Structure prediction request, 677 residues.
Amino acid sequence: MFDNVPLLLHGFEIALSWHHVALMIGGVLLGILVGVLPGLGAPNGVTLLLPLTFSMDPVSAIILLTSMYWGALFGGSTTSILFNIPGEPSSVATTFDGHPMAKNGQATEALTYAFMSAGFGAMVGVIVITLLSSAVADFALKFSSPEFFAVYLLAFASFVGLGGGNPFKTIVSLTLGLAFATVGQDTISGSLRLTFGFDELLRGISFLVAVIGLFGLGELVLTMEEGLRFNAVASRISPKKVFQTIAKMPRYWFALLRGSLIGVWMGVTPGGPTAASFMSYGVARRFSRRSANFGKGEPEGVVAPETADHAAGSSAMLPMLALGIPGSATAAVMLGGLMIWGLTPGPTLFVERPDFVWGLIASMYLGNVVAVVLVLATVPLFAAILRIPFAVVAPLIVSVCFIGVWTVASAEFDLWLVLAFGVIGYLFKKLEYPIAPLVLAMVLGDKAEDAFRQSMLMSGGSLGVFFSNPLVGTLTAIALILLAWPIVAMFLGRRRAGVAAVPAHAERSPS
Amino acid sequence: MSAEDRTIVSRFTMEVAAALGAAAIGALVIYGANEHSIGWGDAGPEPGYVPFWLGLIIVGASLAVLVQTLVQRVGAGDSFITREQGKRIAAFAIPVALFVPVSLFLGLYVATAIYLLATTTLQGRFPLVKAIPIAIGAPVVMFVLFERWFQTPLLKGPLEAALGLY
Prediction:
């Protein structure tokens, strides 16, 4: 486990160059902006920035994008606390106690608790990545096509089995994404599939265009529909109170640890930060000694969801790096970026590009420290940005979305396509079809199909190959159990109970 | 209940429409897959095989949602969208949809300027003194950022051609 230390130190040498620290600061600031603005979230923000990194060195590019992700996660909490408007779906749970604290005149305390516990959670996530990622990658190096297909199947199945909500809607979303991924030239036979004679579809449907439509335009429509009102509380930050609050942090050690554990678990499995923060908040309220105070401005109610949110956000990078399977929608976009930069996500990355992997991991340590400092320092600035009328901000976001779509492939057709995905995104959100599975399926669809068809080539067309050794057999079996789980649970009559229902609520909220 | 709060479409209707829409996409996928061999050849699945089965699953799962909705009367009596919300959405979405054809004719920069000017004055009730600097400033910043910094040319139209900005 500790063999990784020299590699990590080398990573710090890469990440600590002026160029990369500047990218980190720029990325974090852009990320906070994206996180603060409703309608612009982390997946969409990273997608908009991605085409501009095509010509960059992959290490610099991933540092920029991940820093933006950290910034967005922090920025989402700022608006939750000050305005009671979650900037990100994953910071909905932070509004429950964060905003009441701010209304009680404890805005500085609430923000400090949120950012410090978020930083703590992120650190735990990064430490887990440091200790485990190369072990997981070593293990995964033994994988061949059937194992990879089984892992993809497991990722898809876990949305159905663990995602909560209506499993049929999850399946619709997932298979629609897989079908969109098959559009265009088939990688194995070269035949043109599902193009219906349209030349514009030869390139396939870009997942970047889909994300901008689904998360960008779709959420803006939702935000407009709710008729946005900002009711800000005073946002002056007093440095003295910040340090007093930091001194009180150790009091919440148990909530911090528990939140980190929940977050790491939800990040590594594709539960994602949103589910993690709700679960952590729910558990804290259930078991806290001050549980009566929850919802009225209880610091533990800020610490619990924030820790889990960020622990999940950073640990979502573990399966992305080691297995090529993203643990969140934003990680899915970054995974797509890796492929565009010419890297092969997955275990071979640790052997072929250790500078990339360890530079990234080192940058996650630094990036989160930079983010905590910057986000505290810039609260007044970003709170001021939110006083700009939404009638100006929303059209600007729309323009940025269209420009982002154009930079993906300079294709006129994509401008129409993004409108269609905007409509899908709006309908999916309102009718509680989960969006993350669709994005994940679009990113992984080709790879999953290739793995499936290569497995079939190996076995001469026998599905038995997915049970041919204990490893692949176990993976396939778990995937099948997860797929069947909603049906099993329905018979047990427990489907409506528990935390599973909570993330569905978060999907509907403006972000 | 005021007229503005009245429901235009119920959640039930939209659930049914969405399930039927998804099933239609599934059927389209099946149709498209049939242009290729959907069988199982010597080298495993043929090109049409995966899309064909995906299409079938889409149709199956969306019909399952449809049956659930009809049997349990999901969202019957719930509002999907009220008049007030419908107006807000139309005010936002119609200019967004118009943005695309306008930008295809006039380029992204000019389209952005027109769009910003229209939305800030007509919807934001901004005076022209404020709206014009925003509508001209944003595309200029974009131009410097994309064409000069990132070296990423955006879609241009007749105005840029007349100004020789290529």
